[in-house]
Amino acid sequence: MSPLTLLLLQGGFLVLMWFFVFGVVYSLRADLFGVKVRKLPEPMASAPAAPAPVAPPDAVTTQVKRPAAPAPAPAGGLATTDTVSRIVITSGPKVGLELPLGTEPLTIGRSSESGLVVRDDYTSSHHARLVLWGNQWMLQDLDSTNGTTHDGVRVASPVQVKVGAPIKVGATTFELRK
């Protein structure tokens, strides 16, 4: 083998080794410090409600007004702040755990910085996030390796969460409940 061929092979091997080293460093950095997270757009301000018509003072009403009772949340309805107050883990290592939900976003992942820490091999450090957007709970996948499913469908963009619908992150399944 000529010395020039041997030199080119050595140089090519050295370049290949450096690509491998940079790939490992990038992977470790992304796993330790997470990836950039896309932010949800700000909720649009709702238009003010039209004023209710006022009856003339001399009009006689025969109906008795009763205070309205709050309607129960339908099963499978959309999760709003009125219909959801906690997150319940239904399967996985922490089955039975219940966490109260506030108004702050809840990050789910392996990282100790997450609000719900899930320690399994199929969960990313920053896997998914529950965000209150207006009055509606939204589920957002944070570009996790194995993905997040809501009601059996893989989450590609932020989706509205249904009450009682299973949300799967890694080997853990949970749902939002009243």
From TrEMBL:
Q: Can you give the residue ranges of the FHA domain? A: 106-155
Domain of life of the source: Bacteria
Q: Which SUPFAM superfamilies match?
A: SMAD/FHA domain
Which Pfam families does this one have?
Yop-YscD_cpl (PF16697)
Q: Does the keyword Phosphoprotein apply?
A: yes
- What protein does this entry describe? FHA domain-containing protein
Q: What keywords are assigned to this protein?
A: Phosphoprotein
**Lineage of the native species?**
Bacteria, Bacillati, Actinomycetota, Actinomycetes, Micrococcales
InterPro entries in the record, alphabetically? FHA_dom, SMAD_FHA_dom_sf, YscD_cytoplasmic_dom
